[in-house]
Design brief:
By secondary structure, this protein is of the alpha+beta class. It is built from 2 helices and 4 strands, in the order H-E-E-E-E-H. The radius of gyration is 18 Å and the shape is elongated.
Length: 75
């Protein structure tokens, strides 16, 4: 079994973890599995780019008003 999986890499798709060949080029896009939609989350070139995206999203949610109280972002 170790020989078969030695040249594999893990690929996380939603809550599923798949082993694929290490040299496989996986094209990720929107798809569905068992009638559940799978949406692609954009890849970020660095941790700082991802952190910047999160900061921008937090500002957006804090400024958006909730239907009944406060903003859409809840701590």
């Amino acid at each position: 079994m170790n020989e078969l999986t030695a040249k594999m890499k893990p690929l996380c798709i939603g809550r599923y973890l798949l082993d694929v060949p290490a040299l496989a080029e996986v094209a990720l896009g929107n798809a569905s599995s068992d009638a559940n939609n799978i949406e692609r989350i954009p890849a970020y070139v660095s941790d700082s780019a991802y952190a910047h995206f999160l900061e921008q999203r937090e500002k957006e949610l804090r400024s958006a008003k909730h239907d009944t109280e406060g903003s859409l972002l809840k701590s």
